[in-house]
UniProtKB/TrEMBL annotation, chains A, B:
Residues 162-271 form the Acyl-CoA oxidase/dehydrogenase middle domain. The keyword Oxidoreductase applies. The lineage of its organism: Bacteria, Pseudomonadati, Pseudomonadota, Gammaproteobacteria, Alteromonadales. InterPro entries: Acyl-CoA_dh-like_C_dom, Acyl-CoA_Oxase/DH_mid-dom, Acyl-CoA_Oxase/DH_mid-dom_sf, AcylCo_DH-like_C, AcylCo_DH/oxidase_C, AcylCoA_DH/ox_N, AcylCoA_DH/ox_N_sf, AcylCoA_DH/oxidase_NM_dom_sf. This is 3-methylmercaptopropionyl-CoA dehydrogenase. Residues 467-599 form the Acetyl-CoA dehydrogenase-like C-terminal domain. It catalyses: 3-(methylsulfanyl)propanoyl-CoA + oxidized [electron-transfer flavoprotein] + H(+) = 3-(methylsulfanyl)acryloyl-CoA + reduced [electron-transfer flavoprotein]. Residues 80-157 form the Acyl-CoA dehydrogenase/oxidase N-terminal domain. Involved in the assimilation of dimethylsulphoniopropionate (DMSP), an important compound in the fixation of carbon in marine phytoplankton, by mediating the conversion of 3-(methylthio)propanoyl-CoA (MMPA-CoA) to 3-(methylthio)acryloyl-CoA (MTA-CoA). Residues 282-450 form the Acyl-CoA dehydrogenase/oxidase C-terminal domain. It comes from Alkalimarinus sediminis. Its EC number is 1.3.99.41. It comes from the Bacteria.
Amino acid sequence: MPEYKTPMRDMKFVFNELLQTQKHYQTIPTGEEATPDMVDAILEECAKLSEEVLSPLNQVGDKEGCKLVDGQVITPTGFKDAYNQYIAGGWQGMSHPVEYGGQGLPLSLGVLKSEMISTANWSWGMYPGLSMGAMNTVYLHGNEEQKRIYLTKLTEGTWTGSMCLTEPQCGTDLGQVKTKAELNEDGSYKITGTKIFISAGDHDLTDNIVHIVLARLPDAPKGTRGISLFIVPKHLPDASGNTGEFNNVNVGSLEEKMGIKGSSTCVMNFDGAKGFLIGPPNKGLECMFTFMNTARIGTGLQGCAAAELSFQGALAYAKDRLSMRSLSGKKAPDKVADPIIVHPDVRRMLLTQKAFAEGGRAMIYYAAHKADFLIDDSNEEKQARADDDLGFLTPIIKAFLTETGYESANLGMQVFGGHGYIKEWGMEQIVRDTRISMLYEGTTGIQALDLLGRKILLDKGAAFRRFSKEVSQYCKGKSPYVTGKSRGKMKDMISELTWLNRQWNFVALRLVFNAMRNKDEVGSASVDFLMYSGYIVMAYFWAMMAEKAYEQLAKGAEEDKDFYRAKIQTAEFYFARILPRTKTHYATMMSGSKNLMQIEDEHFAFA
Amino acid sequence: MPEYKTPMRDMKFVFNELLQTQKHYQTIPTGEEATPDMVDAILEECAKLSEEVLSPLNQVGDKEGCKLVDGQVITPTGFKDAYNQYIAGGWQGMSHPVEYGGQGLPLSLGVLKSEMISTANWSWGMYPGLSMGAMNTVYLHGNEEQKRIYLTKLTEGTWTGSMCLTEPQCGTDLGQVKTKAELNEDGSYKITGTKIFISAGDHDLTDNIVHIVLARLPDAPKGTRGISLFIVPKHLPDASGNTGEFNNVNVGSLEEKMGIKGSSTCVMNFDGAKGFLIGPPNKGLECMFTFMNTARIGTGLQGCAAAELSFQGALAYAKDRLSMRSLSGKKAPDKVADPIIVHPDVRRMLLTQKAFAEGGRAMIYYAAHKADFLIDDSNEEKQARADDDLGFLTPIIKAFLTETGYESANLGMQVFGGHGYIKEWGMEQIVRDTRISMLYEGTTGIQALDLLGRKILLDKGAAFRRFSKEVSQYCKGKSPYVTGKSRGKMKDMISELTWLNRQWNFVALRLVFNAMRNKDEVGSASVDFLMYSGYIVMAYFWAMMAEKAYEQLAKGAEEDKDFYRAKIQTAEFYFARILPRTKTHYATMMSGSKNLMQIEDEHFAFA
């Protein structure tokens, strides 16, 4: 298994140099505490935890998996110790309010923390990660008592949380939810039903788990408008707010999965468990989805993490493994063969991984700045706009970065040749672990419908046009992220980006027009449109990163000149070898729905 | 796990209607026996074996895997029984000479057998599959005694064979092979060394295994010109030719792999085992690679098999699973939601699988016709030309069909949403099993170098030009496969194919020219060129299949009209939604080597 080494230089390049986060922190209330020294100290400490504690458990988690013993899930060796260190460090509440035990630091700083943890050990990261979902839900929709009882425990990490949405008959289509909630005399509810695919649904890291459960009141309307949200703890809190009596929340079974085996995926049976309504009745879906953007960006992060980790493993191997000679002449004449990094196709694979890892990082940190405004209630207009902007970027980040992350993980395995297929090296584990990211939190197809069907069609594309305008302003030399002093070097990239940005607008208009005539045009174009959009969004960041690197070089950054040159070279690779994928997506999404719809359901196969 | 159902209608369409194999069989010596009745009976029986015996063991093999017990590999439950049925049916020697116990039927018919077996249970199919490699080697390079002793046992299946090439330090770069062969007094050799990744290197299906081993004589020249080939049986034959004393061939360990877990992958230690030189000294690599084309086409078949099996699973699920409503109006108003096959993006995924499975089938059967001429010594010119033609098609079939097969397997999993990630459904197993096919028998990168570096550059592209000319003749209405009577319906596809075929020639010339100036241009363009070529080759077959379907419809094939219409619709899908991928590959392969080569090895990453 590749040992995770935090790519600190690149993280700081994006965080400090490109996005100038310190300037941004002066505009948000939580930014005050996040001084440069504080940020550096936090990143150092989190890197240490990730590299020294979590990374060594990554392969252990895969090998041992979780076990169900007497109705209780046992996590792999070392997971609990690592969790104890994590909560002792106060990491869980880093970006949560001080009044509930958190540190009140910006959400965007928490994203860097998540990145390190996820790259070092995604399976382990699922436990605190799912808890974030529960914390956000209680914070935003819980009443004061619920916050006092549950949020504090969750923020300090004494308890964890889970999100119980999916049932056997429905995942995407939550209108089909059947779990029942019947009013008890004391004002609580009796929750009965079965939930599946519940990540962190049970484990031995803490002695209590707070489930956030979607269920239906007896008189609720059918479909999505009749779903309510409940807090259902595994153990009820006792009089002093600590873990009390068992609440009939049972693990039905543990799923056997392709990957993320260290993360428990449970079938949960609520057998008349006591639940507490959170948020208004029948508004459960709206409440559940409030923080969906940030959760989905967290999943996009896994794509980026997979690209990074697999890249680290493949790069080390490519420098080490000796095979064949370079076609353009021996490169290591003293060795029995050349290291495979000399071969152009191996470099193509490595650069693809690198371009996706670093490009994805920039996209995610940028989105994280937007997310910082979400919890700033002082400026509602700014908040609403940030929410819209994030709503547009979220499906792209989630689906595009997980698809390209999976591609990157597969390329890393490919660099290893046959050895990539052997478990010992850990490269195939990254492929298996990453595969889930295109499925959960809404599949790629669902993200694509969200982007094209909702964010472009229904919302009239306001956020899309705003983003596209930012790109066009950048192309015209007006950007908060670069000075424009090195614009002379950027001609080719800027002209390509300008052209594609125009085409993007044309395509969006054209698809809206098509959809007005025939609704099936939406789903016929959606995934291609999403991927096409992803390549353009990432091109914007690669262009800016190259320009920033030129600017830093011009300032004479002697000690870092190799880093900046490599940035520019990777941007050139991206524009020459990755961005042309837009050509295919353009052609296919414009090809109409007939080629998909004309074949009869019964004519797909013949015996 | 999807239960394999032989796609007999489609197999016969390609075999009988498109390629008119019976006509072809009149031109080869082994064709005489393969009458229509005989062929039908064989396909029926093999379908039964594959569906009823092998398919039910596919998931068992994955779950149990192989075990190493007291130095002996134990295969999963049921594998040995299935193997006994297989040899009792005489399946192993179907396409091998009657004089060594075979049935002397055409090699191309054996390909349909392999297809059914591989799709039903690839892991199980590895045991007889690897044995084929050993049989071919002994048949072509063994002396009469070696054939008498080993080939007969292998042909009847009493013993199996393995191919021992790879060592820890080398896979692709076999010039690094270190295994030693020292002459014994009796003319045999003492073989000492370690081989890794040996499929079917040990198992309990038979009581003896014939290893074909690459090793080095004491005075051998360095590199690839100093490698010889040896027969090294696990047990030496006794005086009557049966399994005799143990020959110091030991299993060092069993690899833990991502997939094909029912197939044993062994580290083999030859501890002074007795070996017998086969073929001329120091010519081992040439001998080993004689039948490489057919072995690699067998791997391409796995890609096709993965697409087919995953398609079968995904199609059934897509008709069954109810989720959301069609955007263009309810399609199943009586149900709680529509079956997901109504959604355009689900259809896109299914049609992609279908297009790759059926298109790949046509490519493979076509190549199998060429392979039939290889064992026809009566016409040496025809034989040499078939070998060249196959040499051109092989890297495309191997790499393109495994890459698209892997894509198809992933799409099948994607159709299942989160359920695709759960082992029980068997969809993720197909992904894991298939992943090996892009690695073994030469990675995609190696196939691409073979295609562009050898078949186009070194061989001056004669076979490429011959194939491309066949495509252009077809476009002009001169083809042995269609009558041309329905040409009127084919305008769009023919014009697209004509154009791309011309571009293909231009690209090949251009890359040859680039490579003359700079050898790194080869590896920089090779994988894109291979995939680009694959899409064009498959387009040729899809166009022909559509035209054949039009012709059959015009003849009034009433009972099959749905089948033919679906063929045409799938061809339209392929041209509209898959073939535009050539646009991206064109752009990237023409982008030159600088964007890959300019970055210093040490500048790929910074701490």
